[in-house]
Amino acid sequence: MPQVDTVLSRADHIGTIGARTGIQRDKYTITPGLYCVGKPTADSPVLVTANYKLTFDALRNELGGMNVWILVVDTRGINVWCAAGKGTFSTEEIAYQVQRAKLMEVVSHRELILPQCGAPGVSALKLKTACGFKGTFGPIRATDIRPFLAGGKMVDETMRSVTFNLKERAVLIPLEIFLLLKPLTLTLVCLVLFSGFGPDIYSLDHALHRGGSIILVTIISVLAGAVLVPLLLPWIPGRQFWLKGLLLGILVAIFTVLRFLPFVGWIALTGMALWAMSVSSFLAMNFTGSTPYTSLSGVEMEMRKGLAIQIVSALLGLLCWLAGPFFL
Amino acid sequence: MEKFRYIDGAAILKLDQAVCIGCGMCEIVCPHRVFKCMEKKATIVDYDACMECGACATNCPVGAIFVNPDDGCGCARYILNSWLAKVTGKKPSACGC
Predict the structure, then answer these.
(1) In angstroms, what is the C-alpha Rg of chain B?
(2) Can you name the CATH fold of B13-69?
(3) The model's pTM
(4) What is the pLDDT of residue B92?
(5) Closest chain A residue by Cα to residue B49
(6) In chain B, where the domains are located
């Protein structure tokens, strides 16, 4: 019986998953194939999902007490929506996994429940020709699977629409910071080293002292762009992300001027302000990739202007910061 | 998603109503409720909500919908990598999402 094999392999993999508790996002995968929840029969529904562990967990977390099949397709550890956009959560891949799992022999019906977010990569119509199974698009969120299956596979407007509430935005922030750690550390070290140049050629004392203030400004700018912009997204005026980031960057710049005015010359102060604005603006712009509502054309459009201004502002800022001590 | 609106007029999305057979697939798959099927024809009711995910075009049985076919996920990091790749002549590295 094919069910027995899938039960065993699932048990194997849950053990492996439990052992993997690191934050290794790239290897956060489960083995593709057919899994069963509860005691599914030949009539039980088949839910299709990606092999990213977070995705798989979100789904199985909602299936307590149910008897269903889960067909996990190989998206190389990427979530359904991004994988569909990249073409790994695809008609061909699902058809391949259907054949590999011999689903025809496991279930008597010919229907696959697909996550709605898989639609950019999967054509329900072509799926029928490719593997004999009709694709039915279920709700966007796994939390709606139970009412969906219980209510005769009806999907209402809320189940079909993506959301981006405070909690959904907040959970994305740690990764933004995590990805930043390496380049940020490198930048901070360089900033401290450069801060030592002055009329007396180079002074370590100078580097540490001035370096401390530019580190503070940089970190606050990072928090503004990568933490505050995601959290306050709907309330920050404007639609383009680089402008939202710039707006918070201006606030950081104002803080910088007020905080360091008595200690730093106005040229270096201008440098710090420009640097703060470009850092915050750049990081806010980077957040476009994490939202569920920005179009590629739109992001490209805002980046053409945004990136140019950020580069000029950052370079000018650093130049002023370097030149500052020579004009005291 | 009422609170979240992106740049108006930016998205590349075209619907050929002459070709449309009114099957309603676009209305089903769109995550931003851009389409509405009325009297056996789909209509774009909220053009600026489109994020070019391409779900409608992929699932239109008669090819009546055209969406920006460029690869990528609307992610600044990916665009930056592809611009850098053009300069260096190397293959663009992925954005990691």
Answers:
(1) 16
(2) Alpha-Beta Plaits (3.30.70)
(3) 0.88
(4) 65
(5) A293
(6) 13-69
